[in-house]
Write a structure and sequence with these properties.
This protein is elongated. It is 11% helix and 36% strand. It is mainly β. It has one domain: Jelly Rolls. A hairpin with a 2-residue loop joins strand 5 and strand 6. It has a 5-stranded mixed sheet. It has a 4-stranded antiparallel sheet with strand order 1-9-4-7. The termini are far apart.
């Protein structure tokens, strides 16, 4: 055997000896079953809840004052006859009123609100489409746009003078600008309104 063949033979024998002795192979040449398992990727858990720095819950009621105080820029141009006061007694009039308030700080986010209306029909109501108090409705306005509306009555028939109550959920958009404007149509007397608001405030 010449020297070159002898050198190759020695190298092959040495490699076989190392492999059989359990010398670890680099991962790139290891079989899949022999490679270490990859570490699992971290999974995002629930984020911690941050408490509101200044929770603010408050209630406004009207009357007082007895006179309605509508903000004209919130409503469409008045093409209808308006009732000037809570507890009006004249049918065929729209009642409009705007609640306004000062925020607890100079930076508040309104979360939710409810508007509770107490009212009496000035005429009987025969159905939801009858031309009496039966077809009367409420609506919430902001800068000339109606942001929500609905029927005042759902049970028929009903007599004039009966007392009804309706609670309306308000969205943050309806409370934006620290004001909320309500319109009641038009054969119904609004005797009182209560606005309840939940907000989160911070100090700058």
């Amino acid at each position: 055997m010449n020297s070159s063949l002898r050198l190759v033979f020695v190298v092959v024998v040495a490699l076989l000896a190392l492999t059989s002795a359990g010398i670890a192979q680099p991962p790139s040449v290891q079989p899949e079953s022999a490679r270490p398992a990859a570490a699992p990727l971290p999974v995002d858990g629930p984020r911690p809840t941050v408490a509101c720095p200044i929770p603010w819950v408050f209630t406004l009621t009207a009357p007082p004052p007895t006179a309605a105080t509508p903000l004209a820029s919130d409503f469409p141009a008045a093409t209808v006859t308006l009732e000037p006061s809570f507890g009006g007694v004249t049918p065929d009039r729209h009642f409009r009123h705007t609640f306004r308030w000062k925020p607890a700080t100079d930076c508040c986010q309104y979360i939710s609100g409810t508007l509770t209306l107490t009212y009496k029909p000035l005429q009987p109501g025969q159905s939801a489409t009858s031309p009496d108090a039966g077809n009367d409705s409420w609506s919430i306005w902001k800068n000339g746009t109606a942001l929500g509306s609905g029927a005042l009555y759902s049970t028929f028939p009903f007599p004039a003078g009966a007392t009804f109550t309706k609670t309306i959920p308000l969205t943050p958009a309806m409370l934006a600008g620290s004001k909320a404007s309500i319109d009641v149509q038009d054969d119904t007397s609004l005797t009182s309104a209560k606005l309840q608001i939940t907000a989160c405030c911070v100090r700058r």
